[in-house]
């Protein structure tokens, strides 16, 4: 299990770190996109700030996941981004073929595995909320 945890941490952490840096210094070429996907990415870039915020968040989340100590926090920060990436790949890039499904599957499986391995962190978050609501009653 430790080897699988190590593999998923470095794979997903490396992906987010490299793609986050790529938002500032383009060194990974853009893959072919369908027109609606290109318009969506173009609109994110045209805002002037959202693309950079996304890049910074990916960098921070990737570093936290790679650290090992803060992996659960990194997964928590990146969860909305993963949800948007999976939605983008499945709904806007689904006509490209197999790669969007493979990347979506990998993000979901690796994130779920890492989160489940750190379930005590997440359960303490939700138990803390539950205790606060019971104290108010």
From TrEMBL:
It holds the Pfam family DoxX. It is found in: Membrane. The lineage of its organism: Bacteria, Pseudomonadati, Spirochaetota, Spirochaetia, Leptospirales. This is DoxX family membrane protein. The chain crosses the membrane at residues 7-28, 48-66, 73-91, 97-117. Its main location: membrane. Keywords: Membrane, Transmembrane, Transmembrane helix. InterPro entries: DoxX (IPR032808). It comes from the Bacteria. The keyword Transmembrane helix applies. It is a multi-pass membrane protein. It comes from Leptospira ainlahdjerensis.
């Amino acid at each position: 299990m430790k080897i699988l945890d190590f593999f998923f941490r470095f794979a997903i952490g490396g992906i987010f770190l490299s793609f986050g840096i790529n938002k500032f210094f383009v060194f990974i070429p853009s893959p072919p996109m369908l027109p609606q996907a290109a318009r969506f990415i173009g609109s994110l870039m045209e805002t002037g700030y959202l693309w950079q915020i996304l890049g910074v968040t990916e960098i921070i989340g990737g570093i936290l996941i790679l650290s090992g100590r803060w992996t659960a926090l990194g997964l928590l920060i990146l969860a909305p981004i993963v949800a948007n990436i999976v939605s983008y790949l499945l709904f806007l890039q689904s006509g490209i073929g197999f790669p969007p499904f493979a990347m979506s599957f990998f993000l979901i499986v690796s994130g779920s595995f890492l989160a489940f391995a750190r379930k005590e962190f997440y359960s303490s978050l939700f138990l803390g909320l539950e205790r606060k609501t019971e104290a108010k009653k």
